[in-house]
Amino acid sequence: MSYTNVIEARGLLKRYGPQTVLNKVDLTLPPGAIGLLGPNGAGKSTFIKCLLQLEQKDAGSVSLLGADIDQFGRETRRRIGYAPEQDCHIPGMVGCEYVTYCGELSGMPFEAARQRAHEMLDFVGMGQERYRKVDTYSTGMKQRIKIAQALVHDPDLVFLDEPTNGLDPKGQALILELIERIWKESGISVVLSSHLLHDVDRICDRIVIIAQGQIVAHDTLAALKSRRRPEAEVVVADQKERLMNLLAEKGWPARMLNNGNLKVEHGEASLNPLISLMRESGIVPLEIKESPNALNELFLQALETKREVAL
Ligand SMILES: Nc1ncnc2c1ncn2[C@@H]1O[C@H](COP(=O)(O)OP(=O)(O)OP(=O)(O)O)[C@@H](O)[C@H]1O
């Protein structure tokens, strides 16, 4: 089946008891490296599980790779890989046996599955450890073997749920490098779920921010990074009241932040008019900071929403 979008969700609703975890999510995603970003408990894993029919949705429709999951769920799953957030290995099994077995579960004949398993274990950088029981692996190795099993059947789309969890910065960087290659070198679309902005910022070309079961932002990384609110934070040592008055005369709303700095909605394409105003008035700024790009700002807002709900 041909497709333009790898994921299309319409009105996706999921409740656990009284809690609405996905609140009528609408989302259309073309092929690519997609970052699903949100604070802990935002609903990322539940979203992935509902798409993969590991959890039953309460309402809405979903198409993956152009096929409605309610009609073609089983067939579609063969073309999709999944590395869950939790450990998913089979206790007592050796690494290469386990990945081979996952290939067979996806319908591959044993020989083909074994060959492809070794290729994927090479890809994720597993050496002789592949002949050891997975139970003895370090966290980094377990994350890598989860990626190998998700790719063994050569899917068109792969979901990686928090694949950098529990890793030190070096381990995180290694995993992110691997994930970047999945899309760039193999053309397999990747949905990378993370609560870390840095993860998705580095390697995803499209970002979805989810908070409290709702999509709060969805755009290309480039668009989110270039979108800036015409605001600035001004640090001045004195004359704050005078500056506030000058800004009000100019028609630029300003407010004093808790740290004593002034937040100015200057509405201009650059900081130059604000700098000129201050220079002409003889007020010397210690620093003028542009507002963060939309990606940072939206993610901070998502974190903030989460915190407010927790209080
Ligand atoms: N099986 C379940 N039964 C009841 N509540 C659940 C279940 N699974 C998840 N939840 C709740 O649904 C909400 C969303 O959880 P989910 O795991 O989807 O979030 P997440 O964004 O993946 O978070 P994290 O980054 O911590 O993995 C949370 O409040 C969680 O407690």
Automatic annotation (TrEMBL):
This is ABC transporter ATP-binding protein. The keyword Protein transport does not apply. It comes from Pelagicoccus albus. InterPro entries: AAA+_ATPase, ABC_transporter-like_ATP-bd, P-loop_NTPase. Keywords: ATP-binding, Nucleotide-binding, Transport. SUPFAM superfamilies: P-loop containing nucleoside triphosphate hydrolases. The lineage of its organism: Bacteria, Pseudomonadati, Verrucomicrobiota, Opitutia, Puniceicoccales. Residues 7-237 form the ABC transporter domain. Gene3D superfamilies: P-loop containing nucleotide triphosphate hydrolases. Belongs to the ABC transporter superfamily. One of its GO terms (molecular function) is ATP hydrolysis activity.
